[in-house]
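User: Please fill in residues for this 333-position structure.
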């Protein structure tokens, strides 16, 4: 009888030990996903990529962290390398299953510099460089490309202002900007437009001089990025301040390639959708977690685009938003 009384207690102890062991293993199997963003949290592009990633990962159990390199506001080589070093330390300490790198700086300094002996895989998003520049796809790295479409932007411009054939390309001197500028120049050669000039500079003074110079002769500025501009003393110029200077001092329409151009006061943009970039990166992440070899996943650009028009800027330029454009564009009042 004494033995019989002890048996339930033994079974209960065995059950508890087994339960804790299984629960511990289940927790250990929840994948860790780290998003290393090139830029800062408040930057709308980065914020929307992050939203797209998290929405895409909602269907699976996971642990998630984001590290912001902040390389638009801290854009010197030394500052970028310092941010990359901190990200690599976090990767080593947290040991994520997947690292999602958004935009070229994070991809260049983190994903492209992966440890071949590590089990961590890398999925990039918002990359303007060719994937071959990162030796991708390979057994550790693949992802999503970001590609603007010159033809869409030329058509969009002509819906706003007919016979706009003389274009000036203007951008800051960040790595992403240079990739995009080169791509845009090549693509515009196929369109019926004339590229008067293409400028890349991190000097706000030079930026202003270019805009003044082409008030006569240019039909539009194709403004790529303006987030690493600095004043005479080397201080960072907030991007909205840079756009505000254009809209205050220029009578030439500015066309961008992201929503923040129109939000910041520029005439309009045909925008690559950052949420879709993040969502597709999450989709690839789930494929890799399910056993897919990154080397077999060919990087492709996302296709979704949206058009944005700033009504206030249109009015200041005496541009009437056509009935053809109203149903298909988001009008920012």
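Assistant: Residues filled in for all 333 positions:
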């Amino acid at each position: 009888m004494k033995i019989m009384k002890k048996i339930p207690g033994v079974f209960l102890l065995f059950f508890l030990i087994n339960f804790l062991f299984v629960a511990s293993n289940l927790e250990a199997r929840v994948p860790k996903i780290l998003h290393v963003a090139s830029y800062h949290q408040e930057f709308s592009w980065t914020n929307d990529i992050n939203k797209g990633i998290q929405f895409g990962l909602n269907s699976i159990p996971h642990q998630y962290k984001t590290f912001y390199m902040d390389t638009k506001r801290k854009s010197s080589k030394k500052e970028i390398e310092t941010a990359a070093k901190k990200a690599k330390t976090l990767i080593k300490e947290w040991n994520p299953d997947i690292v999602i790198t958004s935009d070229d700086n994070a991809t260049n300094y983190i994903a492209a510099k992966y440890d071949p002996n590590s089990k961590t895989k890398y999925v990039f998003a918002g990359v303007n460089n060719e994937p071959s520049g990162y030796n991708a796809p390979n057994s550790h790295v693949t992802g999503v490309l970001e590609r603007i479409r010159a033809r869409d932007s030329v058509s969009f411009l002509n819906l706003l202002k007919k016979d706009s054939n003389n274009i000036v390309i203007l951008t800051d001197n960040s790595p992403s900007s240079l990739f995009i500028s080169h791509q845009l120049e090549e693509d515009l050669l196929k369109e019926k437009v004339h590229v008067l000039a293409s400028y890349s500079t991190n000097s706000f003074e030079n930026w202003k001089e270019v805009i003044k110079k082409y008030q006569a002769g240019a039909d539009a500025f194709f403004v790529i990025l303006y987030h690493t501009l600095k004043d005479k003393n080397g201080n960072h110029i907030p991007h909205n301040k840079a756009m505000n200077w254009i809209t205050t001092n220029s009578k030439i329409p500015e066309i961008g390639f992201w929503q923040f151009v129109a939000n910041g006061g520029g005439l309009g943009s045909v925008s690559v959708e950052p949420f879709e970039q993040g969502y597709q990166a999450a989709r690839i992440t789930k494929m890799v977690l399910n056993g897919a070899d990154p080397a077999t996943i060919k990087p492709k650009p996302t296709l979704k685009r949206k058009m944005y028009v700033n009504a206030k800027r249109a009015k200041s330029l005496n541009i009437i938003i056509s009935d053809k454009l109203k149903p298909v564009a988001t009008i920012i009042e």
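For context: Residues 1-7, 21-27 have pLDDT under 50 and may be disordered.
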